[in-house]
């Protein structure tokens, strides 16, 4: 049984505040902390000090390439590019940062930052059809609680991770799951409960009906993909 004792309650609350259960992703990362300067009528504006202010937008043939917000020459607020979006606060990335497939069809990669520091990253598009994601999460701190959304804002995955030395990788510190992890369907219903202490898995269909209960060693059961049937 893996145990990491760091209290991640505050980090969990912060990730929850960055997620809204609406019809689309909301990347509201502590926007109340942003110092407001009203340049709403100005685009690509530089003030008398030579500082960028307000929205800076770049397009190509009418298509948005990038849109950033500045306060006193510092990135501040929501940004959007042709392949992703996120938030800056006082020049530092903060909250969820999204990289998309195509025109926001699904989330290719999701990273979470706190005050400019990378906390964790995951791959919703690659992992959504499996109880245990094929591409593992990356974490940049000793221990953290991950709560990752789908493209529609519903929770996809949540659980605790810590970094531990891996004997098969020359002692390199790699992410390890511990405790109870939960996976969800796109409609918000619980998809699976994975208990890393008891090494057990319980999976449900998208209507909430139990499909099976099994142990980790029965990988022929729990490693079958759902292939989009949420």
What does this structure look like?
With 230 residues, the chain is mainly beta. It has one domain (9-34, 76-222). Helix content is 7%, strand content 47%. It has three helices and 17 strands. The chain has helices spanning 9-17, 124-127, 219-222, and strands at 45-46, 52-60, 63-71, 74-75, 77-81, 84-89, 92-93, 95-101, 106-114, 117-122, 138-139, 143-149, 155-166, 172-184, 190-195, 200-204, 210-215. The strands form two sheets. Strands 1, 2, 3, 4, 5, 6, 7, 8, 9, 10 and 11 form an eleven-stranded antiparallel sheet that branches. Strands 12-13-14-15-16-17 form a six-stranded antiparallel sheet. The longest helix is centred in the N-terminal third of the chain and has 9 residues, at 9-17. 27% of the residues are buried.
Keywords:
230 residues, mainly beta, 11-stranded antiparallel β-sheet, 6-stranded antiparallel β-sheet, 3 helices, elongated
Secondary-structure element string? HEEEEEEEEEEHEEEEEEEH
Poorly predicted residue ranges: 21-41
Distance between the termini: 31 Å
Tell me the structural class. Answer: mainly beta
What general outline do the C-alpha atoms trace?
elongated
Q: Outline the biggest β-sheet.
A: 11 strands, antiparallel
Per DSSP, the total helix count is 3
* Average pLDDT level: 84
Beta-strand content estimate: over 45%
Q: Give the total of beta strands.
A: 17
Oligomeric category: single chain
Into which percent range does the helicity of residues fall?
under 10%
Rg from C-alpha positions?
A: 20 Å
**Tally of structural domains:** 1
């Amino acid at each position: 049984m893996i145990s990491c004792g760091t209290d991640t309650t505050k980090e969990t609350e912060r990730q929850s505040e960055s997620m809204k259960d609406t019809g689309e992703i909301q990347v509201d990362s502590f926007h109340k902390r942003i110092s407001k300067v009203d340049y709403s009528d100005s685009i690509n504006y530089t003030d008398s000090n030579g500082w960028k202010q307000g929205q800076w937008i770049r397009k190509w043939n009418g298509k948005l390439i990038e849109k950033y917000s500045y306060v006193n020459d510092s990135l501040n607020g929501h940004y959007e590019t042709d392949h992703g979006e996120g938030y800056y606060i006082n020049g530092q990335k903060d909250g969820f940062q999204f990289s998309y497939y195509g025109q926001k069809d699904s989330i290719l990669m999701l990273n979470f930052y706190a005050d400019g520091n990378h906390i964790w990253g995951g791959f919703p598009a690659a992992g959504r059809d499996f109880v245990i994601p094929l591409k593992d999460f990356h974490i940049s701190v000793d221990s953290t609680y991950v709560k990752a959304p789908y493209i529609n804002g519903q929770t996809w995955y949540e659980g605790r991770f810590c970094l531990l030395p891996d004997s098969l990788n020359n002692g390199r510190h790699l992410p390890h799951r511990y405790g109870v992890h939960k996976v969800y369907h796109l409609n918000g219903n619980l998809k699976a409960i994975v208990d890393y202490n008891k090494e057990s898995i319980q999976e449900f269909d998208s209507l909430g009906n139990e499909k099976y209960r099994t142990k980790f060693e029965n990988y022929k059961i729990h490693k079958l993909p759902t292939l989009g049937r949420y």
